[in-house]
């Protein structure tokens, strides 16, 4: 048996033990994991220093280095995040529906864990703790396959989590961190259809495509966010400008940042020059269609690729549209199904925008940056699904469970003629 | 462009039109589809006669021929099923949750259609109408890939459905029946990741495996039912006997029929000889472990394969177990995650059985034959999912939708410092 398979089998064997934990046990475990992370702080920082040195040697820089870097504050934040997950409602065992059928059988829909979740991610070591905590909260065992840049940091974090598992008499395999980071090993993991119930890839386009191509297990993709803001003719211009600045500049490197601005032609003259001024003050480069370029001098011409791009940077694609319909058509064509925003005071226009689009999150007069599990009330998120199946948009602990049927009867039969007239009589 | 791709693209283009239909429009359409089926009755019967003749020529017989056969009564039943789907609640647009966040944004979870559903099935022509109706009820467009034995019947049924679509000004492509039934064409369909939102294979083991192996689009499997009845030491023996007879003999060829009987050793002596007598009277062959063979003379020895088998026939695998734990371990090992039943008067044993198993449907003192969308209150079903993602167990119209987020605000920002202090001022 291969190493990957035997590790995954051990994780699968741990899954029923995790599924059987009650709410109080999971809460205590998550608190102890948080404390253990703090106690392992020095070891985690030392491991992270190794990763950082290797990353520097490889020539990584900027945002990539920043994502990899840990310090005491960040470790405290990771521990705090685990305590917050501990305090979230337990989704397991929740009865979502209950009905007594005419024949008297009681039918309940009850949430159970998925089983084994494989999380595949890139450089951020905090995902190791966050994903493990959320999977565990939902009663799952988890296989973590992080990026090679963060391997030492991830191992040190996993060691801290394992200490807490051991202290609770639970197998370390419930949180299995893979050290074999070859692509072949990932492919093998993604084809363990008898073991892995769900794979969640979270990262750049290359990773997502690789997983989608090779997976035989179910996958929920956390793909890019090509998020749009449409400024309608009935928009409050000041409000729209604020949504634009918040959406584009408050954190340009994340998936819920705005990438494309669509402006109704009736407000383009009033809105675009002002918007361009404010954005350029904040270092944003605009790439526009001809109408935009006419209204905003020195705007670079946008290409087809710009409208499809997730820049994750201080760049904004801009287009002036004829009307709401053209805005909807543009978004349908270029959207990654993540998050779209309309700024309008016209309720009918807002309603049409919401109904015509099938993105995971559609907002009226609110910032795209709220497209986040914490902000939308999930407490914490394992990511933002762009797969329109099972979970769509921010995914919390509940999305790591599934509803099943529990039926209670008193001997009801489907076919009354099956009933033995006098079952008391022996043969 | 290949034929499959261009057909699928036309179906995708029809999807937004189907998604935009309101409840009344869908209801009228479904009623008109039912009437159209009845009006096309003679053509459908003539097409079915061709299929039946070809099937006879190929040497098909018994249950396979019966599944293929249509008559006036069956056509009336198909039309009636469409009318029942018309009367079901519309899942699209339902707000499942609503919350106002501390910052004032209103967050709703709203059901939208999945988009394009590809249904892949085998000989039963009624699935053509049933699946189309349920997909449409949930606002989806559908691609139907039936079995070659039923091609003429399926084409005739699709023609009837298309008449109704046309009468409502809707594109026929909303219900696309594939005529290219080569395996290569199915593989191509299953890899249209930019078009097909969900593939549902429903059929025998070979079909399901083929789809799982080749699909790149999301798949919800409708796999076999290796359903168990466990007769606990605290069982009401008469009740258990009735569940056994109903589960095994009322319709042995369906997936919610019982395939394996597990009996607690403390009641085996009282239960098994009587059960064997009653079952044998009804033509059931028993295959047992050594303990069963001792209690029931002339019982064939069960093999490992028998415990894993979905017989779909008057055959029952039987095993005497030491206790509830051994029953649970047996089911965990051999179950196909479909439906399991415990007969017991001991509430604690029932609770343990339910919690320890993760099958889609778990029943206490009720027949496995209730594991069905209609019986469990879904109104109709597109099948019974054995994939523990999105939908698990009987799948109704609601399972052909997905919840997404709709957010309404009044200009809320994630980072207050994004706010332009005096946006009224021009540049």
What fold name goes in the CATH topology slot of the largest domain in chain A? Aldehyde Dehydrogenase, Chain A, domain 1
| Count of individual beta strands of chain A | 16
N-to-C terminal Cα separation of chain A, in Å? 51 Å
- Per DSSP, the total helix count of chain A is 15
The chain pair with the largest interface is:
A-B, 87 and 87 residues
CATH-level-4 superfamily name of the largest domain in chain A = Aldehyde Dehydrogenase, Chain A, domain 1
Radius of gyration of chain A (Å) = 25 Å
Subunit arrangement of the protein:
homodimer
Number of domains of chain A: 2
Task: Calculate the mean pLDDT score of chain A and round it.
Answer: 95
Class of the largest domain in chain A, according to the CATH hierarchy?
A: Alpha Beta
Overall SS class of chain A: alpha/beta
Gross geometry of chain A: globular
Which strand-content bin applies to the residues of chain A? 15-25%
């Amino acid at each position: 048996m291969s190493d990957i398979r035997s590790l995954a089998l051990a994780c699968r064997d741990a899954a029923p033990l995790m599924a059987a934990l009650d709410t109080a046990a999971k809460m205590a475990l998550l608190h102890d994991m948080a404390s253990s992370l703090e106690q392992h702080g020095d070891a985690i920082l030392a491991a992270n220093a190794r990763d950082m040195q290797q990353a520097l040697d490889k020539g990584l820089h900027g945002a990539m280095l920043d994502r990899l870097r840990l310090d005491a504050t960040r470790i405290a934040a990771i521990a705090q995040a685990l305590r917050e997950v501990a305090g979230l409602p337990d989704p397991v065992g929740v009865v979502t529906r209950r009905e007594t059928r005419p024949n008297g059988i009681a039918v309940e829909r009850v949430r159970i864990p998925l089983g084994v979740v494989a999380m595949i991610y890139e450089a951020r070591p905090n995902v190791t703790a966050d994903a493990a905590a959320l999977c565990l909260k939902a009663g799952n065992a988890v296989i973590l396959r992080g990026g090679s840049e963060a391997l030492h940091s991830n191992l040190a974090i996993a060691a801290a989590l394992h200490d807490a598992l051991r202290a609770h008499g639970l197998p370390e395999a419930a949180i299995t961190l893979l050290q074999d980071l070859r692509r072949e090993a990932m492919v093998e993991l993604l084809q363990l259809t008898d073991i892995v119930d769900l794979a969640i890839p979270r990262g750049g386009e290359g990773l997502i495509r690789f997983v989608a191509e090779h997976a035989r297990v179910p996958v929920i993709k956390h793909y890019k966010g090509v998020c749009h803001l449409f400024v309608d003719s009935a928009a409050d211009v000041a409000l729209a400008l604020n949504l634009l600045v918040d959406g584009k500049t408050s954190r340009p490197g994340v998936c819920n940042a705005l990438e494309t601005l669509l402006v109704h032609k009736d407000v383009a003259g009033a809105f675009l020059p002002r918007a361009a001024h404010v954005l350029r003050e904040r270092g944003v480069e605009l790439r526009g269609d001809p109408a935009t370029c006419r209204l905003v001098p020195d705007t670079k011409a946008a290409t087809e690729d710009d409208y499809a791009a997730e820049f994750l940077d201080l760049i904004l694609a801009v287009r002036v549209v004829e009307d709401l319909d053209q805005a909807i058509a543009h978004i349908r064509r270029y959207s990654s199904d993540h998050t779209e925003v309309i700024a309008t005071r016209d309720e009918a226009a807002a309603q049409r925008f919401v109904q015509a689009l099938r993105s995971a999150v559609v907002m009226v007069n609110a910032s795209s940056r709220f497209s986040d599990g914490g902000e939308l009330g999930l407490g914490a998120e394992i990511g933002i699904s762009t797969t329109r199946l099972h979970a769509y948009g921010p995914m919390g602990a509940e999305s790591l469970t599934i509803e099943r049927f529990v039926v209670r009867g008193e001997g009801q039969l489907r076919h009354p003629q099956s009933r033995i007239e006098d079952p008391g009589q022996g043969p």
